[in-house]
Amino acid sequence: MTIILTSTQVTKRFGGLVAVNSFDFNVPEHSIVSIIGPNGAGKTTFFNCITGFYGFDEGTISFNSHLLNGRTPDQVAHLGITRTYQNIRLFANMTAIENILVGMEPQLKHGWIGAVLGLKSTREEEEHALEESLRLLDFVGMTGQGDLLAKNLPYGAQRRLEIARALAGKPKLLLLDEPTAGMNPQESNVMMGFIRRLRDELQITILLIEHDMRVVMGISERVTVIDFGSKIAEGTPEEIQRNPRVIEAYLGRGAATGLAADN
Amino acid sequence: MERTMKTETRLDWRDVINLGLLAAIIALSLSVIGVVGTFGKRDIIGGVITMGHVFLFGAAAGGAYLAAQRSKSNRAGPTLLSGLVVGLLASLPLIVLILVAEPLDLRRFMHNVSPELLATLTFGQGQGVGIVIVTAISAVLGMVGAGITLIPARILRPLLWGLVAVFLVGLLSETIILAWGNQGLGLMIRGFMFAARGLSILGAATVFLIVAGLNSWWGSKGGLIRERVNALPPRQQKNVRWGGIALGILFMLFLPMFLRTYLSEVVDNIGIYVLMGLGLNIVVGFAGLLDLGYVAFFAIGAYTMAVLTSQGDFGIAGLSFWVALPIAVAAAVLAGIILGVPVLRMRGDYLAIVTLGFGEIIRILALSDALAPIIGGAQGILKIPNIFIAGTEFVKPEQMYYVILGGCLLAFFVSWRLRDARLGRQWMALREDEDVAEAMGINLVKTKLLAFASGAAFSGMSGAIFAVKLNSIFPHSFNLMVSINVLCLIIVGGMGSLPGVVVGALVLVGLPELLREFAEYRMLMYGALLIVMMLARPGGFWPSAVRKRELDVNPNGSLPPGEENLIEPVLQEG
Question: Which residue of B has its CA nearest to A88?
């Protein structure tokens, strides 16, 4: 199995606070990997380090044999990593289609001169991008809603639109930050099926942060647990569920010893 | 049941009284600061209504309209009564003013409480009769203002359009007469339509009937026509659209023939601002980067043109306009990029302050003694030669018009193409959420610099044309007010809207040029207009498509039609 993303000894500090601490981490290609951990454990900070939103203080992250250190978010997107956000961050006053078209940035080549002159190549590229966006809109089940403003879409559709926007960049690795936040069990199930389809049909590797244990255990092939910025466990969902350190991080020491005694 | 019914129909009298008092304050202050008196000299319908009266009684009608609209009552009685109350309240301070102005000799400390103002207030009929007239008109207008909420939109719309048309034609009658011509048929129509000042009564009736008629015809048939055009195959739809554009351009090409010198000069000034506005519209409207120092690029374009072409002391090259123009634009673009680089990581307020400083630095540099040997300091640069096209010297405003029109059309075209292309989307995304835009693969540095550069290019071009138009430039032409004017015209026209820039320039640059009285109250009018616009039409006079969609979605939280029908029968039973 080839490794698509490798993080070696990554450390990120905010002043005195160590948000991510010597983090070693691998994501195999075409897998679904979850990062879990209590609130404030450093999960989203790690995402921000991967995508270049934060520069990190120590260590290296490499993706597909490209070193990500020092790259800006747009460069990372062009390499094939896109993301969604925990609190949906669509371009609220743009239409659904326009949102997806922006996500298609890494695919587009034409510059402003071609646009002003109305060159044939530019027009063709734009037409192709529009077709592709409509196809993606269908793919996430939002056929016919392309002209609605993003902010007027219902919550579930906003989540799906955000994923469509992230898919538009044709990523090799998709980072999903709590994709089922605020969903009821039925909606979560649909989302889980959808995430599996992304991997199976589009061959995209998926790294997700998730709080809902049912979702984590349901779709992940590997789970990494992080607490106070450090990795405390790694393995298959079954291994993680039995790991006393994980139980301790989530439920406290007493519960952990109690459960361990049961086993 | 009984109780709910009462709360549904009862007017909120506190609201009515508040609005009445507000109208009273507005009417009184407009009188006392001199607006009513000054505009009393501009007749809308000759000898009947002046602009002063509109200011005087506009507040009463407007307040009554708002009161009636808020109460959402469908009953004639209470609605008209609320209008009456607002109207009477609004007339109270005017009555007091008429009564006390002379005994207390208010003029000693309120300069504008002049005999002319009192004459306007009392309609020249003396105290007693004057008070009766003012009260009556205010009350009637209050009831009219409230009453129009009862008229169905189908009838109301043509009426309002007709009134607005009469108002505008009357207000601008001086200008229209000027453009009309003095011979033959023109003179006949003019004699029929216009009085010595303002419209004649017959003329007003004619304008009203024509506009109201056209509007109601469009109201009934317009939808059908639009439907028919939409039903055409895309190719023909395109032809219809291009036909419209061609007609518009043809109209603009022949415009100076009607306008002649003075009005062409006004239109030229509007055009200079349109060109600047289109540039700032890219920076602020599209990319959301609040630039308060925009005049800097205008100045740089103008000074580059001046230095390169001037035949006077400070000219260095004696180039022709056409050679110097691209250099002036390039200089402005370079300045745009130089400003852009340090502010790349700044947002909102910080960006506004830095750009504000940049604008002032450029003005002070132009004024400074240090640079005076090169660009003339306070003396400015003189002897900038005119433009030659095919051997003809462009001197008159009618001729300069074509140069400015060319610049505006170019800027319009480029803005339009960019808006609908990838770069336009990048700018929009940047405006919405910079971090996410970057995470989606947009290069922030490039995108922002392109926004600053293209905005600066249009402004620089505008400045270059401005320098040639005046044949001389002075630092004081490039003060902060220019930046603020341009920003205001974009807001009033509609952020990010291309036709909005033109509308904004017509209103904020054209009107003050045509109505000299405005000049004195320019800032007051700007302030009032901006506040009213923000409250009543936040998208501007001509909102961009996106803003329109954004604002249309939930109009005033009104009930959907089905639910309205559920409430009405309940009321009628009571």
Answer: B436
* Partners of residue A63 on adjacent β-strands: A5, A66
- Residue pair B177/B195 in contact by the 8 Å Cβ criterion: no
| Rounded (5°) CA angle B310-B276-B301 | 25
Q: What is the pLDDT of residues B373-390, one digit of tens each?
A: 888 888 899 999 998 888
Strands of A173-177's sheet in order across = A81-83, A173-177, A205-209, A32-36, A222-227, A230-235
Measure Cα distances from B217 to A120, B157, B163, B169, B240 in Å: 42, 11, 16, 21, 21
Give A230's strand partners.
Answer: A227
* More reliable by pLDDT, B120 or A8: A8
**Chain CA centroid to CA A122, Å:** 31
Q: Check if B416 contacts A (Cβ < 8 Å).
A: no
Alpha helices, DSSP H, located in B310-394: 321-340, 348-367, 372-375
Give the CA dihedral B439, B440, B446, B452, nearest 10 degrees. -90
What domains does chain A contain, in order, with CATH numbers? 1-80+171-263 (3.40.50.300), 90-170 (no CATH)
Query: Count of residues for chain A?
Result: 263
CB contact, 8 Å: B235 with chain A?
no
User: Given 3-state DSSP classes, what are the helix, strand and coil percentages for chain A, each rounded to the nearest 5?
Assistant: 45, 25, 30
Looking at the complex, does the CB of residue B410 fall below 8 Å from at least one CB of chain A? no
Which of B414, B547, B549 comes nearest A116 by C-beta? B414
pLDDT for A181-236, tens place per residue? 888 899 899 999 999 999 999 999 999 999 888 899 999 999 999 999 999 999 99
> Per-residue b/e over B422-440, b at no fewer than 16 CB within 10 Å?
bbbbbbbbbbbbbebbbbb
Q: Using the beta-carbon criterion (under 8 Å), do B439 and A82 form an inter-chain contact?
A: yes
Q: What's the CA gap between B418 and B282, in Å, rounded?
A: 9
- Domain B259-544 CATH assignment equals 3.40.1000: no
Distance CA B45, CA B165 (A): 12
- CA–CA distance, A208 with A215 (Å, rounded to integer): 10
Among A189, A170, A156, A188, smallest CA distance to A90 is for: A156
Nearest-CA distance from B517 to chain A in Å?
Answer: 40
Contact state of B438 with A165 under an 8 Å Cβ cutoff: no
Question: Which pLDDT score is estimated for B547?
Answer: 63
Query: How far apart (Å, rounded) are the C-alpha atoms in residues B452 and B283?
Result: 6
Domain with CATH 1.10.3470 in chain B: 259-544
The shortest CB-CB distance from B440 to any of A122, A126, A165 is to A165
Residue from A80, A4, A12 nearest A43 by CA: A12
